[in-house]
Amino acid sequence: MSSESSKKRKPKVIRSDVPPEGKRGKGDTDQDVRYYSEESEVDLRDPIKDYELYRETCQELQRLMAEIQELKSRGIKENVRRGLGMWWSGAASTSRKKLTRLAHIRLKKGRDQTHEAKQKVDAYHLQLQNLLYEVMHLQKEITKCLEFKSKHEEIELVSLEEFYREAPPEISRPAITLAEPHQQTLARLDWELEQRKRLAEKYKECLTSKEKILKEIEVKKEYLSSLQPRLNSIMQASLPVQEYLFMPFDQAHKQYETARHLPPPLYVLFVQASAYGQACDKKLVVAIEGSVEEAKALYKPPEDSQDDESDSDAEEEQTTKRRRPTLGVQLDDKRKEMLKRHPLSVTIDLKCKDENVLHLTFHYLMNLNVMTVKAKVTTAMEMTTAISAGDLLSPDSLLNCLYPGDHGRKTPNPANQFQFDKVGIVTLSDYVTELGHPYVWVQKLGGLHFPKDQPQAWHTPSPHTVTADNSLSASHMELTVKLLRSRLQSRLALHKQGAGAGSCRAPHPSLGTEIQGQDPAGLPTHPWGQRDLLAFPPIPGDRGAVAGSSCRAELPAKLQAAVVLNPGYSTLPPVFSLCLNWKGERNSSNDDNIRAMESEVNVHYKELWGPKPGYQLLTNQLQRLCMVLDVYLETEPHDPSVEGPKEFPQEKMCLRLVRGPLRLKPFKFNYPQGFFSHR
User: Fold this and answer.
1) Is-contact 565 577, C-beta < 8 A?
2) Given the DSSP bridges, would you call strands 528-531 and 370-378 parallel, antiparallel or unpaired?
3) CB-CB contact of 652 with 668 (8 Å)
4) Using an 8 Å Cβ cutoff, are 545 and 535 in contact?
5) How many CB atoms lie within 10 A of CB 576?
6) Which whole number is the average pLDDT over 193-201?
7) Domain ranges within the chain, ordered by starting residue
8) H or E element, residue 419
9) Contact between residue 544 and residue 550 where contact means Cβ atoms under 8 Å apart
10) Residue 114 exposure: Cα atoms within 13 Å on the Cβ side
11) How many CA atoms lie within 13 A of 614 on its CB side?
12) Which of 41, 323, 455, 529 could disulfide-link to 414, CB 3.0 to 4.6 Å?
């Protein structure tokens, strides 16, 4: 069977003509290629029909195999079955092989075509990538060109109006440049070049003139340097004349030389106070105290001390090896450094008409960036210190509340609290005795202003970075000086009244003459005893209290008065609280007449003010208090159960002893009629 099938197999046809391009391999163009006859037949046959023929052949084969199986099962002779199978297998095998070859040829052609299309696509893709790369390169070049900045763009050219107005026509060429921006820019650059050439020539001329002027200045400097010794000798010779004429020019010059080393706040205070003293207040004296050498050392550049620091490194290392300071010692050192004052201070002396002097010493705390003040009073005559005078002239309370709410116990700089936390300082009030009081008005006199509503970030200020406002100092100088002088006079008057209003039975010079004339029976003869402030409970607020007691002869009637004095006396009047010990304890809570007596001195104080500025108000209130005490005692009804005369006979003239359901007594004094009536 194999021989028969080999006979029926078609031989391969080899042709010498060139096959299609798809059949040619790479590098094989000169070799012979085998070519099958079915290759030409593939293009002529319909693949769908071949597929249908192949399917029919397979179905016929299945049918034939089924018949052979059926014949075999019937017992048909084997020769019949074999002949039928050989007949069919020869025809079907030939057709099926041909169809298989055609299918393989079609597949190969399809692969070749796909390969050729793929090569074309790859070639197109490579060409596309090349084009995209060229586009990207061109875009980069375009961007570079667009972003290119010419040097002329950095040149500030004159405006177009000025260019066409000042440039000559041969440069401006309006007929061309107005239509072409490029030519316009070139023309403006040409005009700029011409102008710069002119300016360069002018610059050379100015340099020549400058050198000439510098030579003249050097000659004048030599003349002035030789003149300085002569001026010094003249100033030295004129010192007796200056002292005789009260014109201390030399002393003022030295003061201004020293002022150069003051920190900015103290310098502003010195300048503004000196200017105010020269212009408005001849009794205001400003001076500078302290070590100038220490002040100069603060401003030395750090380079000057590098050698000293390097030389002392070994000593510091040895010291640290020997002994390490404890934590407490370190904190003490840090506190001292934090509270360090500037070596120089400014002193201001305020003189009054009676030759009393208020000495103010202003210091600057360098690390806290605040100013402090210390006060001291020098009186023309030696003053006796009375218990009732209290601490009126104490440096710690003399300037309290010069402005409302300014106690001088806390630092006005919000940044200081952060600095205090670093070194364990709770409040600055523990150090005001040594450093002085940091009042807000002191900061304003030095040109310092601190915000109240928001804290500042912590930093350590330095004397080189502090800024002080001259206008702020000038705007507060006049009012502050007036308040300081008024405070000194009022405190001296209070001190005098406290010292003179002790146990006095006759009119004392400290009592108001106007009120003396209003009393028809003269001053009361009640002896006033004096008690210490500590005998009364402390009264809240920034007010001091002075207490006094009164008794009438040896009779058992004692009036105790607690007096609250505001630091702003006499603008703000004293306030009295009374307690009468007579037939029991009587005060404003259980006796309406005691309340009326308090009203006479607390509410109607304007009647007792006297001549301005009203420094005798306290004395006048005490005198009026004695008068209403007499009225109170004399108008008390006599107890019929007690034999003998009335305890306090009536001496004051009263229109009506009592009035109203509260049975109030007549405490209002009518001058000059000389009688008492109800209000």
Assistant:
1) no
2) unpaired
3) no
4) no
5) 21
6) 93
7) 39-146, 167-247, 250-299+329-452+466-492, 525-677
8) helix 416-423
9) no
10) 6
11) 15
12) 455
